[in-house]
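User: Show me a protein chain along with its predicted structure.
Assistant: Here is one chain, sequence first, then structure tokens.
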Amino acid sequence: MAVLKPLYDLYEWYISRNLTQENMPKHVAIIMDGNRRFSKIQGNMNTLEGHKRGIDTLERVLDWCVDLGIQIVTVYAFSTENFKRPQKEVEGLMELFRDNFESIANNEKIHRNKVKINAVGNLELLPEDVRKAIKIAEESTASYNERLVNVAIGYDGRLEIVDAIKKIVKDVEAGKLDINSIDEKSVSANLYTAGLDDPNLIIRTSGEERLSGFLLWQSSYSELYFCDSLWPELRKVDFLRALRSYQQRERRFGL
């Protein structure tokens, strides 16, 4: 593998030099798929270790985004469906989430780059200690507005839309909103991601080609890119290829 590194470095340079800053996506969303398969392929690695490797990959990707000038990153960390996984795995993941959200308060890199952390999803589904850790992360970065990382946790796109409808119904019943005034902006304003630009580019790793309930409303006009690499194995060249594909497309809004 060491022999191939100079070739990868050269390829990274080749792709990077053809990327233009003016056409860089402002908001990149990522479905981080493949942690479990990665651990199985290793043979003697438990599933939780695969998820830990996935966190390492996320840290690298966020570094790349800072260097490339990408302002908003939204990652699909844990869906409502994931609660159906084996109890030991779910409990291990919750511990990972708790520890990593808590560590953000003292993460020098996060504060140096002024990255605001935001959790999106039905957070009431999460254990109390995870919710407290999320609050620590959000409050410690609340003053930043240069970069934003959204962590979709306890998230499901259909549930998000249902919750938005419930909020709108309450506003109509309370006389705060006229039913004839309901439009796309009204729905967007009541989503978990209210106030954010929709993602320009959505990347999914592991070779699967579906959204799996991720940002169903917000992805209407997003460009989609599917990568064969499992999430823990994602290389910078893979990420740069996604950006190159995005920049080579002629974006159309509609058919």
